[in-house]
Design a protein that fits this description.
This protein is mainly α. The chain has one domain: Arc Repressor Mutant, subunit A, CATH 1.10.10. The protein is 56% helix and 11% strand. The protein has a three-stranded antiparallel beta sheet. Helix 4 crosses helix 5. The longest helix is centred in the first third of the chain and has 14 residues.
Length: 124
């Protein structure tokens, strides 16, 4: 790897090199940035949290959220484009759930820690 020379390198060249070697790629940061941007909306954040715990159709999500189905569909479209939600058709209905990825799992945990929410438990 080439050594990057900074205009005002105030660190030792070894620490600067170590920093450059561990810096995330633009692509990796872009994925996280887009996910955080979408979760910056309170409605999308609540929908995302809900879908981390259940798989639901738009109509039921709208009921949980006390929103219209078109509004929920709009939020789901954005969450899906950001890779946070996945969908599966069952007959005429589309069902949504949180995507199965490390980013989604970590965001779910972070949201619950920050908001001091406990995951619902399933009853036997």
């Amino acid at each position: 790897m080439d050594h990057t020379i900074l205009p005002h390198d105030h660190h030792t060249s070894e620490s600067s090199q170590r920093l450059m070697e561990t810096m995330p790629t633009v692509e990796a940061i872009s994925l996280v940035s887009e996910a955080l941007k979408q979760l910056g909306d309170p409605s999308r954040l609540r929908i995302f949290w809900l879908l981390c715990h259940t798989e639901e159709c738009v109509t039921d999500i709208a009921g949980y959220m006390q929103m219209s189905s078109p509004a929920v569909s709009h939020h789901l479209r954005l969450l899906k484009a950001a890779g946070l939600v996945s969908s599966q058709r069952n007959g005429k209905e589309m069902f949504y759930k949180a995507a199965d990825s490390e980013l989604v799992n970590e965001l779910h945990l972070i949201i619950e820690r920050i908001a001091e929410i406990t995951c619902p438990t399933e009853e036997a």
